[in-house]
Design a protein that fits this description.
The complex is a heterodimer of chains A (359) and B (509). Chain A is mainly α and 359 residues long. Helices cover 77% and strands 0% of the residues of chain A. Chain A has 17 helices and no strands. The mean pLDDT of chain A is 89. Chain B has 509 residues and is an alpha/beta fold. Chain B is built from 18 helices and 22 strands. In chain B, α14 packs parallel to α15. Chain B is globular, with a radius of gyration of 25 Å. The chains are: A mainly alpha (359), B alpha/beta (509). At the A-B interface, α11 and α12 of A face α10, α11 and β18 of B.
Chain lengths: 359, 509
């Protein structure tokens, strides 16, 4: 309860600080927040977009949170996301199976490859003592340029574009994709206005996968002896080592799972929304946002779920200020930054709560 | 007459009352001991005197008869109060001189540090009190005893009249302790007033004039030390009668169960730390390994428990070589350990009590089934341990962090004993524990011995080694330099001085 109140206070302070920034840039904060609120919840399609937007954030957040519980700071979520997206785009285009085989196969391979990619950082830490923050930052860039290299590969690259070929329809996890444009579907949707609008954006199965991942991670962390050992390593590596837990192995395993989760984020993004990948000039930030999600969600699975939705909502509705009020979209970035900043200094709020309790 | 008078000092943090209306009167020029168990509120009281924390409203402080408040350490120092913390606050790469003048550097007309005058003054103080220090040595190159002198000199350089010493002998060797007593007497002779925080009774008898006893944050009484016995002091501190002498029967050593041959281990800097180490342990005996901190004990224990690679040599338990096995395998060969640092190595502090009981065995039946934890088995086991070892509070859902040091140690003890070990390595098993808990741990170790287990006691507290051990070995620079058998422990009168000399590196004559 207290923790919840704390998070709430942090978010509130962030919003207030954001209001201040808005005010300083000559925009009415009340007006702006109204635009954001309406831009997020006033139409079914907006809600659908928020879900789409939040899915990868939930998964990368979960990835960072999971590694964190083993005492590892997974900055590499970004690169693992790219590896997952690249694998999904590649295999999703190359394979020609029926969807019941194709989808699990492509998903599975993407998760596996990004798990190995994440595990590499864990292994380097365990074997050679390379700090995971350093190695994952490097691996992020390697993933980015490797992905760009692959995009230009003959037979994968789409001519005269900056992108790859689209994945096969059998690889798509977008919900009701074909039915939406079929005669039967169109006539059904014309009678159901809410759902019609809700399904207009590329709503996909990614959100279900994300929620399942959240539940599985929660089970691993709270109900299994494997999770028990991971947590012991995270809380006290010395005590864990003395208790006979193979700390190095646990670190590698933890990074593999974290990598797999980030890879799943990338894969669902490609298979459900983007359908291909493009040349990247810079990191897209899904992985880095995962760090923020994990932090806001206090490194717990369900916290990541809620925080993922929260950040997804902010990011989506924040764009709307730009068009509606001609405000710089950077303000939204500043506001999100402020919220994270306030979460990073909970001591201040704890003190505040204490004084408040005394009175 | 009184340099410092405290009246009704209270300090409340949340619901926790650290100090409850404490009264303290310190006479000018005396050595005044503050005695109390861990967590009794001694350190809080001293922090109030030194201005590190503020007392509640209604508390009164008089310094030299004047009502005052001490808002900060800076203010305290200006008033003439100095404090030497248990863990020294020295800059290790700096010289003694630099450390002493740090923060109050005298300057010449150019604004540069006037080392010449500073050195002269430091040397003068050193001479006055017979400190025998060389101001140009670096802190990292001098002994712990010398470091303590630097800390005291620091307070004198700042013209302290009242010096607070927090657990001053905790880190000293027996010989250094004698030097320390001499220094305290010198200070007293020059009219300085000393407050010593301690829970060592013989130390109080040795140097203190009066002693104020605190228990659970409350003032109990102030006594004249010369009229009070150690037993009385202990009883007042704990609130009940305690046995200071460990009662144990004659040991009946059985077969050899643990054998270390020519063991060589390196430390983190890849320098030899344990050198050609030999030791034999029999069932039914407690072997005490005496030695000064830093003579290879940590590396030895880590090697024995599989946490550190051994360079050469052999470690056998029941004739089985365990020298190159992992911690887990060694544990399964019935070697258990109470680690030196219970908070870092013994427990996962942010795990619940019930989880800490099964750190090694979580994957095994009955605690896990197909990788899933069976909570009711955890609860059952934890509850039985809580009852058997009287661990308080009886709340297995509580994080280990929230328990007192004594109860934390009981968790470790319970866990390690529950595996039915053949050999128990007890490394500093009573460090930081209060009298009651020490008594308990000692009794448990003796009980284990009487059940036919072998106990290797490694301790920096010579008294503990002498009182508990059936046999004593002395470790100096990673090797055994002396070995003392049961008969000699019982008959030799000056056993403590005797062993102390070995510990200081005197070789066998």
């Amino acid at each position: 309860m207290k923790k919840f109140l704390l998070s709430f206070l942090c978010v509130l302070s962030g919003l207030l600080f954001g209001a201040l920034i808005l005010k300083l840039s000559g925009i009415s904060p009340i007006e702006a927040y109204k635009v954001m609120w309406n831009g997020a919840f006033s139409r079914p399609s907006y809600i659908a977009y928020i879900i789409i937007r939040s899915t990868p954030l939930i998964l990368t957040g979960l990835s960072v949170a999971f590694a964190f519980r083993t005492g590892l700071f997974n900055i590499g979520s970004e690169g693992q996301f790219i590896m997952g997206a690249l694998s999904a785009a590649y295999f999703g285009y190359m394979f020609h199976f029926n969807p019941w085989i194709q989808i699990p196969l492509v998903l599975g391979l993407s998760v596996l490859i990004s798990a190995l990619y994440g595990g590499l950082a864990g292994f380097m830490k365990a074997r050679f003592g390379v700090h995971e923050v350093i190695s994952t930052i490097m691996l992020n860039w390697i993933a980015l340029y490797f992905s760009n290299f692959m995009v230009n590969l003959e037979g994968f690259h789409k001519a005269n574009t900056e992108t790859t070929e689209f994945i096969q329809p059998a690889s798509s996890i977008t919900l009701l994709e074909n039915w939406k444009s079929s005669v039967a579907g169109m006539s059904w949707f014309s009678r159901h206005e809410f759902l019609n609008e809700f399904f207009r954006p590329p709503v996909n199965a990614g959100i279900f996968l994300a929620i399942i991942a959240v539940v599985i991670v929660w089970i691993i962390l709270t109900k299994t002896s494997f999770g028990f050992k991971l947590k012991a390593v995270g809380l006290s590596p010395e005590a864990a080592r003395y208790a006979g837990i193979n700390v190095k192995k646990k670190m590698t395993q933890s990074m593999m799972i974290a990598g797999g989760l980030s890879g799943l984020a990338g894969a669902t993004h490609v298979m459900g929304v983007a359908k291909n990948i493009a040349i990247l000039a810079a990191h897209e930030g899904y992985g880095f946002d995962g760090i923020a999600v994990s932090l806001i969600g206090s490194n717990t699975p369900f916290g990541s779920l809620i925080a993922g939705f929260f950040l997804g909502t902010l990011k989506y509705s924040g764009q709307k200020i730009q068009s509606a009020l001609e405000a710089p979209s950077e303000v939204i970035g500043i506001m999100i930054g402020a919220i994270i900043f306030f979460i990073a200094i909970p001591v201040v709020f704890e003190r505040f709560l204490k004084i408040w309790e005394k009175k | 007459m009184f340099i410092l008078e405290l009246k009704n000092i209270s300090r409340t943090v949340g619901d926790c009352v650290a100090n409850d209306r404490i009264n303290l009167k310190v006479k000018t020029g005396e050595v005044h001991a503050i005695l109390g168990e861990n967590g009794a509120g001694k350190t809080t009281l001293m922090n109030i005197i030194f201005g590190l924390v503020q007392p509640d409203a209604g508390s009164e402080i008089y310094f030299k008869g004047e009502r005052t408040s001490i808002p900060s350490p800076r203010f305290a120092i200006k008033k003439g109060i100095g404090m030497v913390h248990q863990h020294f606050m020295l800059v290790r790469p700096f010289t003694i001189l630099q450390n002493i003048i740090l923060g109050v550097e005298p300057r010449n007309f150019l604004g540069l540090i006037d080392y010449k005058n500073a050195r002269a003054e430091v040397l003068k103080i050193s001479e006055d009190y017979n400190f025998k220090i060389d101001p140009d040595l670096k802190i990292e190159n001098i002994s712990v005893g010398m470091q303590q002198r630097v800390e005291i000199l620091k307070t004198l350089y700042r013209n302290a009249e009242l010096i607070i010493l927090d657990e001053p002998t905790a880190v000293l060797t027996p010989q250094e302790v004698l030097d320390f007593y001499r220094i305290v007497n010198n200070l007293k002779a020059k009219g300085k007033t000393i407050i010593i925080i301690t829970h060592k009774l013989h130390e109080i008898k040795e140097i203190a004039d009066r002693c104020t006893i605190i228990r659970k944050g409350k003032f109990i009484e102030t006594v004249e030390v010369c009229n009070t016995s150690e037993e009385d002091l202990a009883a007042k501190m704990v609130g009940r009668k305690v046995d200071l002498k460990i009662k144990k029967s004659e040991a009946h050593p059985g077969e050899i169960v643990f054998k270390i041959d020519n063991l060589n281990v390196e430390n983190d800097k890849q320098l030899p730390s344990v050198k050609n180490f030999n030791l034999t342990l029999r069932r039914g005996e407690i072997l005490g390994l005496a030695g000064i901190d830093g003579n290879g004990q940590s590396e030895l224990v880590e090697a024995l428990t599989g946490l550190r690679k051994i360079q050469s040599g052999s470690i056998k338990i029941n004739g089985f070589e365990i020298g190159h096995l992992s911690p887990k395998e060694i544990y399964e060969h019935k070697l258990a350990m109470i680690p030196e640092d219970r908070q870092r190595r013994g427990l996962v502090m942010d795990f619940k009590v019930k989880e800490n009981f099964v750190l090694q065995n979580i994957s095994k039946a009955p605690f896990s089934h197909y990788g899933f934890i069976l909570n009711r088995e955890l609860v059952k086991f934890a509850n039985s341990m809580m009852d058997r070892f009287d661990i308080r509070p009886r709340d297995i859902e509580q994080n280990a962090r929230n328990l007192s040091g004594g109860n934390q140690q009981k968790i470790i003890l319970a866990r390690e004993i529950s595996n039915n070990p053949d050999v128990l390595i007890a490394f500093q098993p009573t460090r930081g524990l209060d009298v009651g808990a020490i008594e308990y741990v000692h009794q448990e170790l003796i009980k284990l011995r009487d059940q036919g287990k072998a106990v290797l006691l490694i301790s920096y507290e010579l008294d503990e080694v002498i009182n508990l051990s059936d046999r004593i070995a002395v470790i100096v620079e990673g090797g055994i330099t002396a070995s003392i058998d049961q008969e000699e422990i019982n008959t030799q009168k000056n056993i403590k001085e005797h062993i102390g000399l070995y510990m200081a590196g005197r070789s066998l004559e």
